[in-house]
Specification:
The chain is α+β, with helices and mostly antiparallel strands. It contains 15 helices and ten strands. A hairpin with a 2-residue loop joins strand 1 and strand 2. The termini are far apart.
């Protein structure tokens, strides 16, 4: 551990990386966020970033991450960037609210994410994945990331909302694109005052209006049918009981469609990419998939048999976390890593550099799914793809189950040969979307 990492002088400021005049560290971040975060993390567990107009800290020490997300979570709230990005689309949703409303929404969502609910979603996940890949022809070239997005939107709508949206996925995907663009640090409009409308703002408004109308139709459709225990039913039941307004029902469905498809599709794209680079693991997973999938067991009982698949998913989420990081803002003065920091300070807790820190990981950049078989004493928050603490990812169990089941269902019938057009870089936004085109040739077994 370096002297800076042990610094406990509350009057000092954390180290700051060298920046450029006017833009500070913002330019390096916009150019290549993962590269910049990895370099800055070497300066210490907490680093002050020079971002004009903001008091921003990069936190990469697992103990400090745990302090923010778990131990002292009451001293922090979600970041202004998160609120601004989702404003006008999810103002009444669990993703952007705080305090009593956020607690009420998390409580209302809970019955849709229980262990029993996961069992029901497993069947739908396998069925829908099988139906989606039916549409791929032998020898066809697919845009891998686009296809994974289409698949995850469809699985999500089918499992969580009990609605078949095949052929209508574009409405959700366009709104997600508009949100990622809105938060893109490279977008020229980022420097303009909020009241100047940009093409990105206009596209955002159009796609969100379309998504709202689409979700209103889904809700109308579902209100007229029998209720089950899926997320849509749970929200509508809460509305009937007077616990949720109709706006809250709609905006939480919107939030799930957006938050619930993008990260899993990024993760799946990387799974296929790394399996293509590691034929030994692909062969092992294929054998596992062919043994486990299609052996007449209900889908909810497949997961224990997919151990290697689950480890490949965990390792992919370690090396290629789908989100830029978790963001928080201090609501009161806090002491972190020995530094006294004021209320209003913002914190970025990025998974990428922490998941590759050689203090906690052997051969950190090596893809090694077998590391998940070995016991370890690494700190809990050296790995946090789904965040942690009371505000962690609502969809974590759904996502873990979905990723393993989708990978196994596809591998049981199809082989994907992947090609990446250029070096792997990422959109500088809240979501670390791969930038180069990633294509795959489908071979049916
Ligand atoms: C690989 C897949 C996924 C990853 C890596 C992921 C990651 C995350 C992360 C890092 C957060 C931020 C939590 C925080 O601020 O502390 C989050 C929040 C959230 N995620 Fe996920 N997520 C994934 C899949 C899903 C799915 C499938 C759903 C829905 C079914 C979902 C719904 C949400 C919601 C609603 C929130 C906001 C929670 C709140 O603020 O209370 N996510 N996710």
């Amino acid at each position: 551990m370096t002297a800076q990492r042990m610094a406990a002088d509350t009057t000092a400021s954390p180290p700051t990386p060298d920046g450029v005049p006017l833009f500070g560290n913002g330019l390096a971040f916009a150019r290549n966020p993962v590269d910049a975060m990895e370099r800055w993390a070497t300066l210490g567990d907490i680093v002050r970033l020079d971002i004009p107009g903001q008091e921003m800290y990069l936190v990469t020490g697992p103990a400090l991450i745990e302090q923010i997300l778990v131990d002292d979570h009451e001293s922090f709230t979600i970041s202004p960037a998160q609120r601004e990005t989702f404003s006008g689309v999810e103002d009444h949703a669990v993703t952007t609210t705080t305090g009593e409303r956020w607690e009420r929404l998390r409580r209302a969502l809970h019955p849709a994410f229980t262990r029993d609910a996961m069992g029901r979603y497993a069947d739908r996940t396998v069925e829908t994945t099988a139906a989606c890949i039916e549409a791929w022809d032998d020898g066809e070239q697919i845009d891998l990331y686009e296809e994974m997005r289409r698949l995850t939107v469809t699985v999500l709508a089918d499992a969580l909302l009990d609605v078949d949206i095949r052929g209508r996925e574009a409405v959700v995907m366009a709104a997600a694109d508009a949100l990622v663009d809105r938060a893109n640090f490279r977008r020229p409009g980022q420097l303009l005052p909020d009241w100047v409308p940009t093409p990105t703002d206009r596209r955002f408004e159009r796609t969100v209006t379309e998504l709202d109308a689409f979700v209103d139709d889904i809700i109308t459709e579902r209100r007229g049918t029998d209720r089950g225990k899926d997320l849509c039913s749970v929200l509508l039941d809460a509305h009937d009981a007077g616990d949720l307004s109709l706006a809250e029902v709609r905006e939480n469905v919107v939030a799930m469609l957006l938050a619930g498809h993008d990260s899993p599709s990024v993760a799946l794209t990387h799974v296929w990419r790394v399996l293509d680079e590691h034929p030994d693991h692909r062969a092992m997973l294929t054998e596992e998939a062919q043994t486990v999938v299609g052996n007449e067991q209900p889908a909810s009982e497949l997961l224990p048999g997919l151990e290697h698949t689950r480890h490949v998913v965990a390792e992919t989420l370690r090396l290629y976390p789908p989100t830029l990081g978790v963001m928080r803002q201090a609501t009161e003065p806090v002491t972190l890593g020995g530094y006294d920091l004021p209320a209003g300070a913002q914190f970025l807790l990025p998974q990428w550099p922490v998941h590759r820190d050689d203090r906690f990981w052997d051969d950190p950049t090596t893809f090694d799914p077998t590391r998940w078989e070995r016991a370890t004493n690494r700190p809990e928050y050296a790995y946090f793809p789904f965040s942690g603490g009371p505000r962690n990812c609502v969809g974590m169990h759904f996502a873990k189950q979905e990723l393993a089941l989708v990978v196994a269902t596809i591998l049981a019938t199809v082989e994907l040969a992947v090609s990446v057009d250029g070096p792997l870089t990422f959109t500088p936004s809240l979501q670390l979307r791969p930038e180069p085109a990633i294509e795959a040739i489908v071979t049916r077994r």
